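Worked example 3. Consider a protein that binds pyridoxal-5'-phosphate.
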Amino acid sequence: MANSELALLGGPKAVQTDPEDMFTWPIITEEDEQAVLEVLRRGGMSGTDVTQEFERDFADWHGVEYAVGHSSGTAALQAAMWACGVGVGDEVIGPSLTYWASVLPAFSLGAGIVFGEVDPMTLCLDPNDLENRITERTKAIIPVHYCGYPCDMDAIMEIAEKHDIKVIEDVSHAHGAHYKGRLVGTIGHCAGFSVMSGKALAVGEGGMFITNDELLHERVIAWGHYGRTTLWAHQRSLPGSVAEALRGPPLGRLQVPDAPVVLRLRPRAAQALQGPLRGDPEGHELFLGPAGGRAWRARSPAAQGVRLRLWRMVCLPRHLCS
Ligand SMILES: Cc1ncc(COP(=O)(O)O)c(C=O)c1O
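Given these inputs, the predicted complex is written out as structure tokens:
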């Protein structure tokens, strides 16, 4: 396999074993279809009832006070940044390896982006580099639990608290992952999740914001959910991006209770790839890492531009399997 052309470009696939009865993603059941049809048939696509029920389910799953649905993960992260006070002339710190949406919304708020190094094994924001990136303008740190691997949150929170900076976890790759027994997304001051169909909670284009902080919640509501405000928010409504009832919430309501079970399926895909990849002379291998609580997330390393000792993907092995 050494020096062969990438499978992406027509070369041989690295894993040629039969995936047998491997599931494909996303898993959509008849019940899911019915739930979407029900919203369509009653013409409730722009309502917020299902969305708010989904938010309650999501908050309960994470054991937090507040969850607010958004039209995308990017929108949830943008709202989180605004809620944390990120504005013109400020800076946010994000990892130098992530999907752009983790940090790009800072630009739309007039802020700048500072990239911190990532740990070469976990590919998550390296706390040893983080303090070097902090300036008097830093308003938020955005750790991304990259490809399902939990960031070193204790170290990140310690630095953030020392400098009085807010931490917005980007949990778009790590729904259901744990850090020292706690669900990721519940450790920082707030968190944003993408729930688009490639993600572990795959409910369609959509995003979720969660927090235990009442003020951050108020501000996120003010940012875009002006139809459902408290007085404070009502006076300051801004044109943020809301979730509507059709794209996601009906599916999300069904999937949240099953999430722990469904997420346990994903390591099966990891196992199916790990065996054939072990010993590959090109150095492709899955990084399982020391943390017990990681979640599994699909990632095409070629698309990511990563040259792959640390290749963690999983769940959509179709581009590798014959
Ligand atoms: C790490 C990360 N953050 C944020 C996002 C943005 O989510 P969305 O596509 O729902 O806007 C993504 C999307 O892939 C992502 O991978």
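Take a moment to read the result before moving on. The pocket of pyridoxal-5'-phosphate is lined by residues 72-74, 98-99, 101-102, 144, 170, 172-173, 194, 196, 207 (CB under 6 Å). The longest strand covers residues 66-70.
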